[in-house]
Amino acid sequence: MDVPDGADEASAQSLRVVRAHYEAFARGDIGAIVTGLDPQVTITVHDEHGKPASEPLRGLEAARSFFDDIKAAVADPTVEIDRLRADGNRVLAHLRLGGTVRETGATGDIPAVHLFAVHGGLITEIRTHRPDWRNYQPG
């Protein structure tokens, strides 16, 4: 956890919320993921070049569908956090997401960068920057 000395409580709380999010993701616990999201959450998916891969997803139903789709596509998900950095209600995460692509059987991991906004103990925004799951690198 990257919290500078003297960091404010908002930064520390934001890091706790994001860590809980990743722990739920690694367990495949969609219910816990959704519980940690604000009802008006926005998720924007970008490719590795920073270009939006689709229109932003808004609200809990869209978020649940997003994470259900990942769970359906990837078995045995793993999350290896390289770095988390918080500045108040903003968190920057550098990580590797792993698992097995159900469609192809490919196993490995991919680098990802996620940006979060956290308010009132809930995630209000997620911006993902990652290659497609089908581009797993052998582990």
Could you explain how this protein is built, in words?
The chain has 139 residues and is an alpha+beta fold. The protein has one domain (9-138): Nuclear Transport Factor 2, Chain: A, CATH 3.10.450.50. The protein contains three helices and seven strands, in the order H-H-E-E-H-E-E-E-E-E. Strands 1, 2, 3, 4, 5, 6 and 7 form a seven-stranded mixed beta sheet that branches. Strand 5 and strand 6 form a beta hairpin. The protein is globular and about 45 Å long. The two termini are 24 Å apart. The mean pLDDT is 89.
Question: Quaternary state, please?
Answer: single chain
Number of alpha- plus pi-helical segments: 3
The structural class is: alpha+beta
Tell me the distance between the termini: 24 Å
Look at the structure and give the CATH class. Alpha Beta
The beta-strand count equals: 7
Report the order of strands and helices.
HHEEHEEEEE
CATH-derived architecture: Roll
Q: What is the count of distinct domains?
A: 1
Estimate the mean pLDDT confidence. Answer: 89
- Under CATH, the topology can be stated as Nuclear Transport Factor 2, Chain: A
Beta percentage is 35-45%
How would you sum up the global shape? globular
List the helices and strands and how they pair.
Blueprint: H1 9-27, H2 30-35, E1 37-46, E2 57-58, H3 60-73, E3 74-87, E4 90-101, E5 107-119, E6 122-129, E7 137-138
Parallel strand pairs: 1-6
Antiparallel strand pairs: 1-2, 3-4, 4-5, 5-6, 5-7
Gist of the model:
This protein is α+β, with helices and mostly antiparallel strands and 139 residues long. The chain is 28% helix and 44% strand.
